Amino acid sequence: MNILVSRPKKFIDKTRAYKLYVDDVFIMDIRDGEELNIVLPLNSEKICAKIDWCSSNELDLTELKNNDKLKIHNTHSKNILIPFYILFIIFFRKNNYLKIEKI
User: Please, which residues have CB within 8 angstroms of residue 62's CB and are 6 or more apart in sequence?
Assistant: First the structure.
């Protein structure tokens, strides 16, 4: 199965790559502004993205079709200027730092 994964350009995390995992196995990095075509085995079940100790939700791949598009983005970039907000997110909501969704 082929899927297209995109990461929009954003200031936050600009110099750092997000790591993509399929069924808990690392497959590749995606950098700021990249759009990658990924070929997955037919029996793949879930995909998620990680950066350091923070991660995204797990997306069920069984619901996707061939050539579907996914977007990975930082969910908290609008609130970066609020003091201590990012520290709160990194330490207490680390599994919601990124979001992966079908578009």
Answer: 45
What H or E segment, with its residue span, contains residue 87? helix 85-92
Q: 26-36, pLDDT tens digit by residue?
A: 999 999 999 99
Ramachandran area for residue 59 (φ above 0: left; ψ -120 to 50: alpha; else beta) = beta
Report whether 57 contacts 71 (CB < 8 A).
no
Q: Write down the pTM of the prediction.
A: 0.83
How buried is 78 (Cβ within 10 angstroms: 0-12 exposed, 13-18 middle, 19+ buried)?
exposed
> pLDDT tens, 1-28?
889 999 998 887 888 899 999 999 999 9
- Cα–Cα separations (whole angstroms), residue 86 to 20, 51, 75: 22, 14, 11
Encoding tokens for residue 64? 């996707």
